[in-house]
Amino acid sequence: MCKNHEAYNIVDGILSFTDQDHFDSHWEDNYYESIPEMKLNAAERFLQPILKDDASSNSLYLDAGCGDGVHLKVLNDVTPSREGNNVALDISTSALLTARKRDAKNWEFIHGDVGMLPFASDSFDASFSFGVLAYTPDPKKSFSELVRVTKPGGKIGIWIYPKSGGLGGWVFGMVRGLCKLTGSIGTSLISNMIVPVLGLLPTQSKLSLANASWKQCKEVVLVNIAPEQLFFPEPEEIEAWFKDFNLEITSNDKNNPIAIWGKK
Ligand SMILES: C[S@@+](CC[C@H](N)C(=O)[O-])C[C@H]1O[C@@H](n2cnc3c(N)ncnc32)[C@H](O)[C@@H]1O
Fold first, then answer.
1. Which of 94, 114, 131, 135 has the greatest CB tally within 10 Å of its CB?
2. What b/e readout covers 140-153, taking b as 16+ CB neighbours within 10 angstroms?
3. Same domain as 71, residue 131
């Protein structure tokens, strides 16, 4: 119970600030899977702006939408001497349990919504969200929450898959439409059909059956085709968000989908 007498649940040692629990079945299926090397590499590349500058400091980080914990694992592996109560937040309890199992050193696990972060303003030295804002009902509002909880002078990093045009974009739209029509059973069947050809598709993770297990590949396919609602922006739209919140863009990896870091 907090000082305003609001009561919050603690489930399996994880404090919950939301009664929503999305994406649980997705992460339950992956509880026993390891994190593919390709995903770890992509996470390390995304985190470069904070790994470069803060490697030896004890800056406080927020991983908003931590999923199965790939970014917190990279941060712990690359900077083993860091200490502090960094926060890994997700709307899925199963994701948090999976992430906690990976590496809990220096991390608190919080069940919450990135669209309404349960933290005071100016709390973190860096807040980042990899592949998460696109799933939220109001991605720009979620982004504003990352900005709010970051300290002045702190860093905000986001990764979002952009709108894909041409034939590829059209096929992708068709597949997503088919998933909506056929529900969870149809979506699972479709994802199983895509897994063998995943390596031939222009994915950022470059995951395929040559370097990952069937379940690991299926996880990547499902996050793209299963969600009812997904937001695919133009890169300029995301750059405009940074300007709207008076953030200085400090890193914009043009060879990555949309991977931008800014300073508050
Ligand atoms: C594609 S996964 C990415 C996970 C992780 N960041 C990674 O890079 O592997 C998207 C994650 O966002 C979480 N998520 C979706 N909507 C959310 C919200 N409103 N608040 C917090 N997490 C959310 C999902 O539960 C899921 O773990």
1. 114
2. bebbbbbbbbbbee
3. yes
